[in-house]
Amino acid sequence: MNYRVCYPENRIYISRNHQWAFAAWAIGKEEGWTGSRPTLLHVDAHLDDTWDGVMAEGLHEMECMADYLNVAGKLEIDNFIWAGFAAELIDRIIYVCPKDEDPSDPFDLSDWNLNGEQLAPIKALLKNREYSGSRFESLHDLKERMGSNLFPLVAGSVILDLDLDVFAVRDLESERIRLKPEALIKEELAYLRDLCPYVLITVALSPSFCGSEDNCEQLYGLFLDVFGLRLSEAIPW
Question: Which ranges of 75-212 does DSSP label H, i.e. alpha helix?
């Protein structure tokens, strides 16, 4: 199910699957909200930095809402960030993502065979632009190192890209997924809310990575509450 709702006045776009954030970023650029070099604050249990998003058909020919949705529909939940970078919808990226899933440095491309045929699109892209940013282990790590001032890391405007699965924890023994304590989730959501004035917010629900539909519904409700939103006022997009 491709559930998508938004709060246009708040510039908040919510979707079940994360690749639809790409379309919201395109809307933000068209509306003039995000500027020419927005920083993406990607808060997620996963990096979502698979490079093949740059190969999406129609990526560089988008002109309208139908095009944005068409391209987003061809992306996957793990490759939309590179697609957004290639389409110049985002620039620098701040990853807030635990290293137990993927300890790699998303900005270290030294092992990539950029002279090979497969990565030719990446090599061409990097001739004109640098793929750069910062990575933090968690929201606690971000807060410890940056406090409430994100701006030393930011080149321009900021897009918050949040996946609710960042508030889910996998038990190493049972492999079952549980949620962080509710008080901690609300504290971390409030920290994100107040960290800086975002020009756009995209949220992925990702129920399968939250452990269950019930877990996802609980997290969704907490997000709406902390950000002062009513589900009854959301509109489809």
Answer: 80-86, 120-126, 139-146, 182-195, 207-210
- For residue 213, what are the contacts with CB-CB under 8 A and spacing of at least 6? 207
- The residues, ordered by sequence, that sit 6+ positions from 37 with a Cβ below 8 Å of its Cβ are 91, 92, 155, 156, 157
Task: List strands edge to edge, sheet with 12-15.
Answer: 133-136, 93-96, 39-43, 158-163, 200-204, 12-15, 4-7, 235-236
Rounded Cα distance, 64 and 51, in Å: 24
How far is Cα 176 from Cα 182, in angstroms, rounded to an integer?
18
Percentage helix, strand, coil, to 5, in the chain? Answer: 40, 15, 45
Amino acid at 171: D
Contact at 8 Å (CB) between 189 and 2?
no
Q: How many CB atoms lie within 10 A of CB 124?
A: 12
Check pLDDT > 80 for residue 79. Answer: yes
Tell me the DSSP string of 17-56. Answer: SGGGHHHHHHHHHHHTSS-SSPEEEEESSS----GGGGG-
CA distance linking residue 170 with residue 203, whole number of Å: 21
Note the residue count of the chain: 237
Tens digit of each residue's pLDDT (9 = 90 or more) over 9-51: 999 999 999 999 999 999 999 999 999 899 999 999 999 999 9
